[in-house]
Amino acid sequence: MKKKWKILMFYIVVLCLLTGCWSRKELNEIAIVTALGIDKSEDGYIISVQIINPGEIAGKTSTGRTEVVRFTANAGTVFEALRELTTDVPRKLYLAHLREVVIGEPLAKEGIGKVLDFLSRDHELRTDFYLTVAKGSPASEILNVQTALEKIPANKLFSALENSEKNWARTKTVKLDELIDSIVSNGKEPVITGIYVYGDHEAGGDFTNVQNVSPNIGLRINQLAVFKKDKLIGWLNEDASKGFNYITDNIKSTVVNVPCQNGKVSIETVRSKTSVEGKIENGKPKIHITINSEGNIGEVQCEIDLSNQESLHKLEEEYQNNIKDKVEEAILNVQEEYHSDIFGFGEVFHRSDPKAWKRYEQNWDEEFSNLEFTVQVEGKIRRLGTITESFQNETRE
Amino acid sequence: MENVKISSFQLFTLIYIFILGTTVIFPVGADAKQAAWISIFFGLLSGLPLLLMYYYLNKQYTNLLLTEYCIKILGKYIGTMIGILYILFFLYGAARDVRDVMELTPLFLYGTPSWAIAFMLILPILYGLYLGIEVIGRTSEIFFPYIVLTVILVVVFVIFSDLVKIENLRPITEPGWETVLRTTRKEAWMAPFGEMICFTMIFAYLKKPKLILKVGVAGVVSSGLVLVLIHILIFSVLGSEARNTSIAPLLRMVQKINIGDIIQRLDAFFMIWLIVNVYFKVTVFMYAAVIGGATIFKVSKSYLVIPSGLIVFITSIFIAGSYTAHYAQSDFVLKNVYPIFAVYIPLLLCVVTFVRNKIKKRKPRSAENF
Lengths: 397, 370
Description:
With 397 residues, chain A is of the alpha/beta class.
């Protein structure tokens, strides 16, 4: 009798473990969303999702169907639109593997705050996706492009964003928390990298696009969108974008072109460190930016004797000036055109002098527009590459 | 009271886990913005006098529990009444912590009804209560290394994921000392440091009663500092805004851990850690209630285990209708009800014993003079 009790208890305990399967979702019942596009419609939002077609990605034989599928829906809120998609998508959308959120430019101009609420509230979403703004075309069109090399376009965007930030330094990856943080902060305004479709717009969704050696259409990221609070107010040009990355100490590696006698030298920045200090001088806030940059010679297109210290110093000077110009241009450009403190100078004051910040906080935009700043660049060239003197010197003679 | 003893280390581990409990998950002291961790630190400092008070009481009645010396000090009727109030308080505290878990787990087990989660949490707790304090102490001793290891891991992982931004902590004292202190009084003092009152029902089991103060202070200070450290870490990773608006900032931080795309998505792992913490916290609360009931009503503890489990289970479900209501209630209770049990009544007991001791001492002397 006692043994029977024990067995019964055992079964009851095992039964309890089944609570773990309460709301299970099997892999073949969910549709994995990799990219989410949000556009404005007249009375709400047009949501487009890019869903993986698992059979094509993982299967050994491809059946000739596309690897990803795009669906769109139009509803009053983001959440509602995602649910409305069930009328079109055969499976339940699963958002945990989202890599990319694309926001349409018109919506960004109107304000993205409302959209971000869903992204940070929903339990299924993680915060490790990147946000971008679709430039010149609706977000739904961005998701409609089949990319070569990467089977999943969202992955292509994801890695392109990471790589270009690391090696090109004119773009910036933005994650949700950072974005919300800078929207909320009074002393810092957000930026988001732009993304656009190039080539033949009609060809985007066509599967044959990726069967060309040079695809008719593609996705390219560039430029930074300037925001004020949650509204897009304009775009930085490429140089200013780079200047922005210098100021915010977001440079890992980049290329700097400096002029020399009838030609150019490309210097590869390999290390860069920026410190920004804020001081109140004569009752006026003042910013001091110090940049320490180290570079290697990447390419030489002129006659220059690199074994000569003198000419190397000259090159370093040009290198410093180039960086300084970009930084100053970026600040002046933003001060004049956008009056939006995307560099976070306000935060610098906020941290170093909270009392003074209280005074400036209310009309910081104005203060920022008239903010005085000094830039000091320390540039060093360390290595010359695998050859010292360019053979071009010989060919000229 | 049970006829068993626990070792100093077991008591230390129980206190350590108890303090971490649920406080480590929630955005405690959100009013103080980025200075919330200072509030918690002050909570720790102001929790030490309480501990001293509990120690003083225990020293007077080495082998008795709170409910027992309550009767000795205040007389049979008032003492019993206060004892019963304490039992209700402990049960309520347990239910509140179970509810905390019920609010958290849906973030992961979406769709699972929260009563099922509460049920699953309470079942092993009841088993622990049934077996008694000795077993509970031994269990916490076994789990302790894992809990410490997990804390170390989270710190290391977060640092190696390059998530820490010290500038998020600055300006440190912007909210002002007044706000910081108010937040301490409102939130960070009573939970978890005021909740240490539960241990007045456990101190008596210590093998070497002399060590109570040492072990108590060591436990509270070490885990209090870990608590402060984790909250500093959360602030430096998430920033004040995200930390204070998130329901579970710790988990949000853990989600961000990513080392070389290999070590990532550890949130489920840390959820287990939290459940273990909460298991011990609720167990200590319920043990205090059950053993208190056993001493007051003079029945075996085993009779009270299941009824109190049912009470906690049902209370945790009906305690509040929504997260917002639960939060508002916590606010009210921590400010108005907890101090009564954690500060005022023990203080009253202390004063009464102190005065009585003085009178007792004086009597023989006055007799001599006479």
